[in-house]
Amino acid sequence: MFLQVILTGALIGSVYSLVAVGLTLVWGLMDIINFAHGDMMMISMYTVFWLYTLLKFDPFVSLPISAGITALLGVLIYKFVIKRVVNAPGLMALLATFGLSLFIRNFAQFLWSPNYRFVGESILSGKRIFLADLIIGLPQLAAALGSIVMTFLIALFIKKTKTGKAIQATAQGRDIAELMGVNTEKIYAITFALSGICVGVAGTLLSGIFPVYPEAGAMYGLLAFVIVALGGFGNIWGAFYAGILIGLTEALGGFYLGTQFKYALAFLIYLLVLQFRPKGLFGW
Amino acid sequence: MLRVDRLTVGYDSVPVIFDVSFSIQEGELVSIVGSNGAGKSTILRTISGLLKPFSGTIEFMGHRIDKLPAHQIVKLGIAHVPEGRHVLGKMSVKDNLLMGAYTINDKIEIQRLLDEMYELFPRLKERENQKAETMSGGEQQMLAIARALMSKPKLLLVDEMSLGLMPLMVDKVLEVLKEVNKKKGLTILMVEQKVQEALEIADRGYILQTGKIVAHGTGRELLESDLVKKAYLGM
Ligand SMILES: Nc1ncnc2c1ncn2[C@@H]1O[C@H](COP(=O)(O)OP(=O)(O)O)[C@@H](O)[C@H]1O
Ligand SMILES: [Mg+2]
Q1: What are the structural domains, with CATH classification, of chain B?
Q2: For residue A261, is pLDDT > 90?
Q3: B-contacting residues of A 21-40, CB under 8 Å?
Q4: What is the pLDDT of chain B when averaged over all its residues?
Q5: pTM score of the predicted model
Q6: Which residues make beta-bridge pairs with B32?
Q7: pLDDT at position A284 over 70
Q8: What is the DSSP string of B128-151?
Q9: What is the CATH number of the domain that holds A159?
């Protein structure tokens, strides 16, 4: 049973990681915490839901569409909200993204009502594999593997490509990057698109497992913030490991203490770690 | 090649450079010297587009550049080695150099430039895969200059390259600058607090005091002027 709990935690933790990677990218580059991050994920879940309901698209077919929509949403958020506050004092950006988050949630509620909705079927739903004593749901497995692959691709993109290196350079100093010919506004927009792709993919992978409703992204946004802090702000692999850690904590806490405690334990770990390592477990 | 005309610029609408004019011909090595806080860095930041003039114009090879964003000015052929070097500390030496060639798309050309830099600074070749932040101050200064040269500039702006370097290292860097100026014909504008060294290697110089140019002439003329002797050389 213990192994089953660990497995469940690690699987969901990988998805948390991907959401957190999207958040940490933006933080690492611009020192901005995007409070609307989880709500972008909710938009991707609704995208999958409507494509399924209206057009009978399988969630896996919808993946590029929903990721594309959240990427675009990321760019729009940058252009119309972040760009105006990026040079303003820190609290401005915070308030702006907080306001944006409320706006997106209320807008979703207005358009689609607060009701829980479910994506009924995907090619994987209900399927599972048995491994010795362990039961692994295929949707969960796909969500975890998809998230890990995506995290890996994002890390590779940042490390190896010319645009990725320009993102690193911009993170180390906007003026310096400009002096090398980098259009840093474009880099900001691209990073918001990448961040959107992360939540778009995560939201799609989760839509087959969890209900879709306007507040669906809220807890993920909050957990992502905790994970980013634990992993060291701006640190992609730090966010990855911290995400798994939070997934495990949640599963173990839920199983041994009761489901009402599962998030409490995650936040408790966060508070404890920050007492001793203010820059996170993997911060320098 | 570069003409700065009646430039006034500063921070948060408080000017620190007042009505400054000067010009640079192709192939020259020009020094602007002045003490800390005189406004040297501010002038370079305005030329490279990081600051926008309050008034006045900047012309480069016949084009007005004073309203262009910095990343476009690099493309026109101005490279700026900022004060404090600012290498990309977390990135490798090689990646720093490649970032210098960000505006160049031709892979073969980039490789040629890389080889050229390694020839000019053999030390960088040895440290190619090392993180830039692990190098000494002098090596970082070399890297910052090499990175700027990777963009194939027509005009190189160098801000206070002597800052925090041992005298021996200062001489070395100056030598490199002289070499790229004389052998490759690269036009250089450098700003310095080290008045003697900067005027010695310069074709021409300008003296900047609290945001105003108070004297100009050839390097030699300035070194022998009473103003420089009294105010900067302590004679
Ligand atoms: N970012 C800034 N914000 C406000 N004032 C500045 C800034 N940078 C420089 N200054 C002021 O502008 C003046 C000129 O500075 P600077 O150009 O750095 O001089 P220098 O390079 O000759 O030492 C100084 O009085 C300095 O205090
Ligand atoms: Mg200076």
Answers
A1: 2-85+154-231 (3.40.50.300)
A2: no
A3: none
A4: 93
A5: 0.91
A6: B191, B206
A7: no
A8: TTSBGGGS-HHHHHHHHHHHHHTT
A9: 1.10.3470
ipTM: 0.93
Measured between its terminal Cα atoms, the distance across chain B in Å is 35
What value does the mean pLDDT of chain A take? Answer: 90
Counting the structural domains of chain A, the total is 1
B168 SS3 class: helix
Domain-embedded: residue A284: no
B33 lines ligand 1 (CB under 6 A): no
Average pLDDT on B40-66 reads 96
Q: Is residue A135 part of a domain?
A: yes
Tokens representing A68 are: 């594309």
Total Cβ atoms within 10 A of residue B143: 25
Q: Domain containing A209: what range?
A: 2-276
Domain membership flag for residue A83: yes
Q: pLDDT tens across A180-205, in order?
A: 999 999 999 999 999 999 999 999 99
The ligand 1 atom nearest the CA atom of B36: 23
d(CA B18, CA B212): 6
Q: Report DSSP letters for B172-228, one per residue.
A: HHHHHHHHHHHHH--EEEEEES-HHHHHHH-SEEEEEETTEEEEEEEHHHHHHSHHH
CA of B44 to the centre of ligand 2 (A): 9
